[in-house]
Amino acid sequence: MLLQAQLKALLREGARGAERYDVRHTQRSWRQFAAFAYVVEQYGYRYDGLSPLSPKGSPNPYFAFRRMPDAAERATRAAALHPDALNGGPLPGMRPGARRLEPLPEARREVDLLHARIMVDYSRTHRRRGLAMLLLLPLVMLIPLFQADFSRGAVLICAGIWLLFAVLWTLGLLIARRRRRRYGRVLQEAGITWPPA
C-alpha cells in the first residue's frame, strides 16, 4: 500500500515537472529500496544520492531522485507496459505477485548497483548520527549526579553508561566504514564513481 502511495506521489510530481523527488526508505530492506529506485527510474527519475532535506546524521534520511531528460516518455512507456502497477499489478522489472519488489533476472544487475550506491550514501550518515548524543550525554548525566551528590558510585555508573554509548557509536562507525568500502569496491569494479564529484 505504501509502495503504491509513493509511486502515485512520484507520478504526481512528475506530471508537475518537478526536478527532484525526495523519499525516505520505507521498504522492508535496503535491497527492496534499491528495487524501488529501479522502478522509479523506469518512470523517469534517477537515484541521485542523499537529499539536501535530510538532517545531518539522521538515522532515516531522505534520498533524492533527479528528473531525467526523457522523464515524460519513460513514464508514458512504463504506464503503457504496466497499466496496473499503481493498483497492485506488476512493476517494471519486478516479479509479479505478493513480493512485488523482487527483481527479474534482467533487472538484477542494475538493482545491485543501485543497492551499492544507496549503501555507500547511507553509510556516510553514521558519523554524525550518534555524535551529538555522545557529547550531550555527560551534560544530561549531571542531573542524577547532582541528586546523588556526586558520590563515587553515581560517577562510576554515569561513566560506565557513557562508555557503553561511546563503544556502541565507535562500533557502528567501524561497521559503516567497512560497508562503505565494500560497496565502494562493487561500484569501482563496475566503473561507477560514487558519490559523483
Would you kindly provide a written description of the structure presented here, covering whatever features stand out?
By secondary structure, the protein is mainly alpha-helical. Helix content is 59%, strand content 9%. It has seven helices and three strands. The chain has helices at residues 2-15, 30-42, 71-81, 105-123, 126-129, 131-147, 152-189; strands at 20-24, 45-50, 62-67. A three-stranded antiparallel beta sheet has the order 1-3-2, covered by helices on one side. α4 (105-123) runs antiparallel to α7 (152-189). The chain is elongated and about 70 Å long. The model has no long low-confidence stretch (mean pLDDT 88).
Give the H and E element order. HEHEEHHHHH
Structural class: mainly alpha
| Biggest beta sheet attributes | 3 strands, antiparallel
Question: Roughly how many Å is the radius of gyration?
Answer: 21 Å
Shape: elongated
Strand order of the largest sheet: 1-3-2
Assembly status? single chain
Mean residue pLDDT? 88
Indicate the percent of residues in helices. Answer: 55-70%
Give the low-pLDDT segments.
none
Give me the number of helical elements: 7
Strand content: 5-15%
* Strand segment tally: 3
Distance between the termini: 36 Å
Core attributes:
elongated; 197 residues; 7 helices
Give a quick rundown of the structure:
By secondary structure, the protein is mainly alpha-helical. It has 7 helices and 3 strands, in the order H-E-H-E-E-H-H-H-H-H.
Task: Give the helices and strands, then pairings.
Elements (H helix, E strand, L loop, with lengths): L1 H14 L4 E5 L5 H13 L2 E6 L11 E6 L3 H11 L23 H19 L2 H4 L1 H17 L4 H38 L8
Antiparallel strand pairs: 1-3, 2-3
Helix pairs in contact: 2-4, 4-7, 6-7
